[in-house]
Each structure stands twice: as structure tokens, then as C-alpha cells.
Amino acid sequence: MVGRRGRRLRTVSTKAPSLTERRKAATQLDIARAAAELFTERGPDDTTAEDIALRAGVALRTFYRYFRSKQDAVAPLLAGGADRWRERLAAAGPDAALPDALERSIAASLSPADDEAAEGLRWTRGLLRAAERDPALRAVWYRVNQESEDRLRSVVAELAGPDADPLEVRLAAAAATDAIRIALETWAETDAPVRGEGGPAPLAVRCLRELMGGMRLLGPAVTEPGTAP
Description:
Distance between the termini: 40 Å
Structural class: mainly alpha
Helix content: 55-70%
Largest sheet: none
């Protein structure tokens, strides 16, 4: 398929996941939610893999089939939000202005439309608070963000067009990922609500604007050193 700007767009596969794949993903998410609940309630130190498996209603061997450690178990929950916002960004289409598309997709993704989405953000807040005292859990959080940034680069490249500087594309992906990460970490330190002023959505947009201010791809052209403005 060719976009209006004349570049060829990648075709997204519409093949539905198999029943086995759906069951696997559902089990992993059940375990992730159980781990998030327990880490929030008790903290990682007072939670075992056995506790998580029991809360999720699975055998311990099933837990270790999917996860290497209790901290790893929360990765699907943390990654799910990143997956959804990248899909929303990609859906903006080739004619969308990249800065606007990033802002809109980030704001929409961090503005929960229902109680389930709001609960997911509350779990994220609990996990980030627990991660302050658990280096292994903090490492999972940073790994999920790095993986999200790596996947985001191809989406940004599609929206930016074939003439975009690869370095600018990489910087844009890093800025967007860091904007969300920093906003969630900052919000998690407070008791602000998940919606409205003080919530993660406006904070992430502010972070993005601050980070992208000097980028040619995401803002006005910068003046090279030694040249007139």
C-alpha cells in the first residue's frame, strides 16, 4: 500500500492469534496482575513466586514456564500499555504531523477511558513505588521501556517519512519513551488522581514538549552554532 506522501507503508498482518496463543497470553496476564496486586499490597520482599501462582490460580511450574523470577512476572502488565499506545500512534497515518500524533496518542493512552484502564495505572503506580526498594523490579521496568523504545523507532520512521534523519528518528523515539516513563515515575510519587489535572497524561505531554524542543524532526529548526538565526 502507498501513502499519500508517495512512500510505501508496511502492511500490518491481520491474522488472528491462535487459541493456544490467546490462552498463553491470558495466563501470563493473570499472573502479571496477581504479581502486581501482591507487590502493591505486601512489597516484593514479602511476596514469593508461590504466592503469585496461588493468587493467579496456576501451578508453580506454570509460573516458571513463563517467568524466570517473581519480578519478571509484572512485565506483561507494564508492556501492555506501551503496546497499546504504539498501536494508537501507528494508526495516526502517514499524513499526521509527528509532534501532534505523539502528543495525541500519549495523552489518549494515559487518559483511562474505563475503570479497568484506571486500575491498570494504579497498579503501575504501586509497582513503581515498590521498585524504589527492589533493584530487580526496577530493572524490569527499565527493560520494558527500552524494549518499547526499540519497537517505537519503526513506527516513528513510518510517520516521519523516508527523508527523515535516522538519528532524529532514534532521538524522537527516545524522547517519547522517556516522556512517558518520567511522567509515570513522577506521578507515582504523588497521590494525584489518574484522570485530569495532575494525572499522568498532561504530565507526559509536558515532558514530551520539554524533551523535543530542540529536535528538527519534532519542532522548529534549530540554528547551527556560529550562524545567524
